[in-house]
């Protein structure tokens, strides 16, 4: 018989503050599902412990002696890919550059650490931290590698199979009925949640500077970080990345993000509408609401892309796109940090193509290239 103890999430804490370590241990000990199996004072010490302890999740501080959090995350992802949660006062709002540098290095998520005596005294802090670790315990770890000079994500082996709908664009150079899609394609809508910033970066950096199809993105992210996410993506993308403005019309060469705490819709004239309607499915902005709105306007001219994330936001939106005659692409299980949202779209029969995240950007670029060739032939 397997006991509950054997199923506990094994956590390694890396922090040079004895007080912080004790508080984190006490908080995590309050959950029957989590076991702290070790602590380290800095990254170098932790790297020596990982092969022996084999943690399921690593919680690390950012500022530490000998090897700081940035260096530690990079080394872990190169040597022993594991889900990493960075807990630090330096990932609070106002330290946004740290957040996206850590995500780019391979951390799955960040968690602001209250200062001083407030650490661990908040019931919300304890509940939120435990919830984060439970989420991370189920994610797919990635190894950061270099391929042709470009950083790529390689999923590590894990169990489980996924029923992939047909046709599946494993070879994205051969796409069934793609000509019919391209002839009416007007807008690409991308939705993502947990792990989304890394996935979106991977996709957008593949798109050429003359990409002619406007893109709208809805990313679930903590309020206050959207502007920094956009600034971060500008540094790796050839296209202009911006936050959508009310009454603005989408133009080619631009990638528009839904702003904090507003739904992004489109009106009959083709202008953006930033709505303050209640959350849909617990989300604001809602991926499904945006996909439905753009489908009502462009009908079969929408290509929907649903990426890594918890829950089911976007699944019903992908179904609306599919039923209207548009195209739908979901990120596959092997490259998803959390497979929840893509999996829900697949189960609804709403996913036409299932692709590794490293192929989705090339898939979009291929479609755009064919569209330009068709336009040239028609002149």
UniProtKB/TrEMBL annotation:
Residues forming coiled coils: none
Catalytic activity, as annotated: [protein]-L-glutamate 5-O-methyl ester + H2O = L-glutamyl-[protein] + methanol + H(+); L-glutaminyl-[protein] + H2O = L-glutamyl-[protein] + NH4(+)
InterPro entries reported in the protein's UniProt record: CheB-like, CheB_C, CheY-like_superfamily, Sig_transdc_resp-reg_Me-estase, Sig_transdc_resp-reg_receiver
GO molecular function terms attached to this record: protein-glutamate methylesterase activity
Active-site residues annotated for this sequence: 193, 220, 313
CDD domains reported in the protein's UniProt record: CheB_Rec (cd16432), REC_CheB-like (cd17541)
Enzyme Commission numbers on file: 3.1.1.61, 3.5.1.44
Residues with the 4-aspartylphosphate modification: 61
Cellular compartments annotated: Cytoplasm
Keyword annotations: Chemotaxis, Cytoplasm, Hydrolase, Phosphoprotein
Signal peptide: none
Post-translational modification: Phosphorylated by CheA. Phosphorylation of the N-terminal regulatory domain activates the methylesterase activity.
Enzyme kind, highest EC tier: hydrolase
The record's note on its domains: Contains a C-terminal catalytic domain, and an N-terminal region which modulates catalytic activity.
Family statement drawn from the similarity comment of this UniProt entry: Belongs to the CheB family.
Role, per record: Involved in chemotaxis. Part of a chemotaxis signal transduction system that modulates chemotaxis in response to various stimuli. Catalyzes the demethylation of specific methylglutamate residues introduced into the chemoreceptors (methyl-accepting chemotaxis proteins or MCP) by CheR. Also mediates the irreversible deamidation of specific glutamine residues to glutamic acid.
Name of this chain's protein: Protein-glutamate methylesterase/protein-glutamine glutaminase
Origin species: Candidatus Magnetominusculus xianensis
Designated gene of the protein: cheB
């Amino acid at each position: 018989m397997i006991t509950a103890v054997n199923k506990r999430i094994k956590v390694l804490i890396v922090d040079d503050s004895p007080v912080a370590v004790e508080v984190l241990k006490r908080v995590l000990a309050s959950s029957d599902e989590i076991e702290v199996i070790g602590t380290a004072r800095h990254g170098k010490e932790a790297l020596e412990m990982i092969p022996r302890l084999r943690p399921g999740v690593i919680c690390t501080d950012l500022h530490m002696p000998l090897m700081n959090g940035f260096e530690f995350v990079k080394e872990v992802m190169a040597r022993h890919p594991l889900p990493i949660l960075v807990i630090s006062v330096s990932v609070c709002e106002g330290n946004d550059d740290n957040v996206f540098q850590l995500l780019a290095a391979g951390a799955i998520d960040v968690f602001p650490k209250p200062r001083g005596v407030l650490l661990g005294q908040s019931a919300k802090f304890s509940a939120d931290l435990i919830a984060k670790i439970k989420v991370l315990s189920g994610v797919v770890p990635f190894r950061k590698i270099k391929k042709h000079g470009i950083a790529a994500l390689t999923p590590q082996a894990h169990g489980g199979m996924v029923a992939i709908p047909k046709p599946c664009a494993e070879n994205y150079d051969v796409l069934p009925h793609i000509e019919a899609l391209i002839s009416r394609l007007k807008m690409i809508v991308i939705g993502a949640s947990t792990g989304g910033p890394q996935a979106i970066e991977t996709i957008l950096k593949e798109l050429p500077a003359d990409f002619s199809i406007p893109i709208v993105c809805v990313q679930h992210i903590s309020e206050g970080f959207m502007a920094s996410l956009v600034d971060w993506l500008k540094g790796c993308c050839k296209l202009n990345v911006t936050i959508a403005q009310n009454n603005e019309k989408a133009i080619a060469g631009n990638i528009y993000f839904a702003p904090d705490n507003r739904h992004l819709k489109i009106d009959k004239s083709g202008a953006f509408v930033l709505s303050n309607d209640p959350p849909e499915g617990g989300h604001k902005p809602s991926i499904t609401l945006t996909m439905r709105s753009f489908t009502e306007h462009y009908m079969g001219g929408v290509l929907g892309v649903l990426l890594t994330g918890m829950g089911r936001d976007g699944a019903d939106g992908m179904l609306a796109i599919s039923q209207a005659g548009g195209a739908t692409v979901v990120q596959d299980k092997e490259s998803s940090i959390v497979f929840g949202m893509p999996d829900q779209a697949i189960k609804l029969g709403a996913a036409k193509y299932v692709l590794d995240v490293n192929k989705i950007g090339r898939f979009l670029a291929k479609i755009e290239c064919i569209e330009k060739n068709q336009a040239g032939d028609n002149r």
